[in-house]
Design goal:
2 strands; alpha+beta
Length: 90
C-alpha cells in the first residue's frame, strides 16, 4: 500500500523536532512523531550515543542540543552534515 512508508525515519523526526523544540519532553516527542515514549527514549539514547544530541538537566527537565555539523551515518550521505536536513524544516 502506498501510504505505509515515509521518506524520513523516526530518528530523523525526533532530531528535527528536538532542533525546533529543545526542551520537549519525551511525551511531547512521542506525540509529535507518532511513536511510543519507549521508542523515543531508545532513539534519544541512539542520538546521544552517536553524538548528534547532548542532554542537559535543567531543574526537573531535560534540554537537548542538536549538533548539526555532524555528518549523516549512511555512506551515501556521509559527506553531508545533518544540519542540511534541519534547515529544510526550520
Amino acid at each position: 500500500m502506498a501510504g505505509d512508508w515515509t521518506f524520513l525515519t523516526n530518528h530523523a523526526h525526533v532530531l528535527v523536532h528536538l532542533h525546533a523544540h529543545p526542551d520537549a519532553r519525551v511525551r511531547d516527542l512521542a506525540a509529535a512523531v507518532g511513536i511510543t515514549e519507549r521508542s523515543v527514549m531508545s532513539i534519544l539514547a541512539d542520538l546521544e550515543d552517536g553524538g548528534y544530541v547532548t542532554r542537559t538537566r535543567v531543574g526537573r527537565r531535560n534540554v537537548y542540543r542538536v549538533h548539526p555539523r555532524l555528518r549523516f551515518r549512511h555512506p551515501a550521505e556521509a559527506d553531508q552534515p545533518v544540519g542540511k536536513l534541519l534547515e529544510i524544516f526550520s
